[in-house]
Hints:
- By secondary structure, the chain is an alpha/beta fold.
- The longest helix is centred in the first third of the chain and has 11 residues.
- The chain contains five helices and eight strands.
- About 10% of the residues have low confidence.
- The strands form two sheets. Strands 2-1-3-4 form a four-stranded parallel sheet, with helices on both faces. Strands 6-5-7-8 form a four-stranded parallel sheet, with helices on one face.
- Helix content is about 25%, strand content about 15%.
- It has two domains: about 100 residues, BRCT domain (Rossmann fold, 3-Layer(aba) Sandwich), CATH 3.40.50; about 55 residues, BRCT domain (Rossmann fold).
Amino acid sequence: MKRKASLVDDSDDEDTKVRKLPTSDNYSFVVGSSSITQEQQQQISKLEDTGQISISGADFASTTHLICASNDQDSCRRTLKVLFAIAKGAYLLNMNWITNSIEMGYIVEEDEYELTQKQCPGAKKARKHKQEDKPSLLIGMKIFITGSTKMEHDVLVQLVEVMGAKNVSTYKDCDVCVLGEEHDFQPTKLDKPIVNEKV
């Protein structure tokens, strides 16, 4: 079915239908990329020039569609952008979604280009979870992060908040504690689940 990001056509003719947007007219395709080549990034910019998408840049949390470097055999690298996309329930797609959209002149359906379970475990499940309006994975949970983490503290906080949790500043107020590799954490009472960052 033909689709355009800015148009809706209720015609019964399948050949003339364009994309019915999932929300209001304010819906937009915010496209990010992870581990792709400069030439591939230029292709994304070319599609942006048509006015049908925008590029998310460094704003990971706004991304609705993430283009990843992956093929049928290779796994997708778990970059920060990938982690945020999974947490947000965004589409993780291969580059053919961009090139075919340019060739066809409209935004093609995502399903054919979505990364497989083998390429990026959990991504498709998270996306369906989000589209079905199910609660975020960590909704309502309070997370305490302490110690020296590989991921920057502020970024880790943003990631757990995207997943629906609230960051708290003390162990006694948390439901779950995330523990960095280097820490001086010595609670008097261990009565909360403790998650090692490496897990």
